[in-house]
Fold this sequence. Notes:
The protein is of the alpha/beta class. The protein contains 10 helices and 12 strands.
Amino acid sequence: MYEFEPSEFKLLIVDDIVQNIQVLGSYLRNEGFLLSFATDGKKALDMIFTDNFDLILLDVMMPEMNGFEVCKILKADNRSKDIPVIFLTAKSETESIVEGFRIGAVDYITKPFKTDELFVRIQTHLELKQTKEKLEESNRTKDKFFSIIAQDLKTPFKTILDSSKLIVDYFDKLDINQIKEHINEFHQEGEQLYKLMNNLLQWSQIQTRNIECNYQNIVLSYLVNNNISLLSANATQKKITLNSNIDESVYIFADTDMINSTIRNLLTNAIKFTHEGGQIEISSKTIDNEEHITIADNGIGISKENQKSLFKIDTQKKFFGTAKETGTGLGLVLCQEYLKMNNGKIWVESEIDKGSQFIFTLPKTQI
């Protein structure tokens, strides 16, 4: 459950009467807010355009430049238009209140202040601002994500259409081996589309909370060994050795299907980005009430720049394996989501040409 933390927010109090600033500032500082002060409109604008504030408490009646004039300038500037402004006023006339709302204020507080009311109004508008920012960020992320997915869908479909047209146009001139080659392209692209759609479905279920965790005690080595058996053919093709030194006594408390999918994704990636004749090691160690599981390879490694975007869904990720293998770019995103749902986390340690270690944590017992 979300808990409001005043210490996370910086407020600007603007009032030409120092005593008002002292009273208001003393109360809000005691509540934990970060505070700055200005005694006139011009100074307030200078501070707002050089610093970051989460909310502004703005006196209406000030000499030279009143609160309404300051607010109009703030709302006309892209740097400050989204900062909530609460007017401080001794006036309670309807005309004055309406004017404040009309030029962009979110609320008003009449003097003398009632501290409980003041706190609740400030909290409400800070939470609304946070919610709005999160929704906007979510929408931007989804827009980028769908653009990436559209491109990922376009490529295999184009290959299928081009190859099928070639067969239709030149069927009588192609020999059986050429036809088989084009059909194999269909199959490979079809597999890629299936993986992409399956990953999309899983990601969608997580985002809509349409997936449940069935937590239970799991023998970690059982999941690891099953996935080694499942992927042994892929590893054998590249003469890669898969080793696990996880003891049968190691238990984790998690959802079997989600962790199974996580291990399979990480092992698949390790095989993909390891050279022929390479080696992949799976190990674990207990730290407090957590099991730290490491899947390490001696493959091509990942640059520091690319490491930053590995777990982000809104970033295009097109890395080819050592045998030109392709992927959907969603596997690591799903791993991270699954681990979060199981009270775990994941990170990578890697150097170019030296290999990568993907490390993830899971609780050993119920949290």
